[in-house]
Amino acid sequence: MSCLSSSSEQPSIAQEPSQIAQWQTVPAKVYVQAGQRWGVLGTMGCCFAPLAASCLLQPQVGDLVLLTFDGRQAYILAVLERSGQTAQLQLPADTVVRSAGSVRVQAGGGLHLQAAQAVVLQGADVALQAEQYLLQARNVHLAGQSLHSYFAQRQEYSGQRQQVDGQSQLHAGQRVTRVAGHDDYAAASQRLVIERDWRVRARSAELRGAQRVVVDGQQVHLG
């Protein structure tokens, strides 16, 4: 029996006149894919058939599928045996998965999420646990009421940094600051409390006061 073209609007399968109106279900072998139709070969002959709406697993060449037909049209109901190692699920329209309980996705290998548009995670709490976490994005925006971070070691590298705080406090056991170029500091007022030593060393130093300059101590050495 000759195979029908994949472009046929209504694939026809040769049957006895008494069987034309009856739906039959038979196993068939996939030998080719043409767009959203698959060429199958079985006891009924060969034809091209689309997937039934309930068949989410995409057949591949060499797969054994369950085919239903009535002589005028045919549909692939399910994939019975797969010939390859990769399985592909295809949903033809927007899909919503609802569960009365929790939903868990477990993968023996990796888990890859890819979308042409936005990926949205929304929940009362979102928890992420990993040995290594890598985030790469052209622009990153974080917004919230509070932010808490705890690190045993932290390193930051940036080409340019601007920070604006309404109030800022820094508590450190020890701090070392090195500026290769110019360091400019401006404040309405400043108070330094040094419990032990305070040393300033410069090639050229200048201290000015618009009204008063006070240098006081038990010993003052100039020159």
Automatic annotation (TrEMBL):
What is a single Pfam family found in this protein's UniProt entry? DUF3540
InterPro entries reported in the protein's UniProt record: DUF3540
* Protein name (record): DUF3540 domain-containing protein
Q: Species name for this entry?
A: Alcaligenes aquatilis
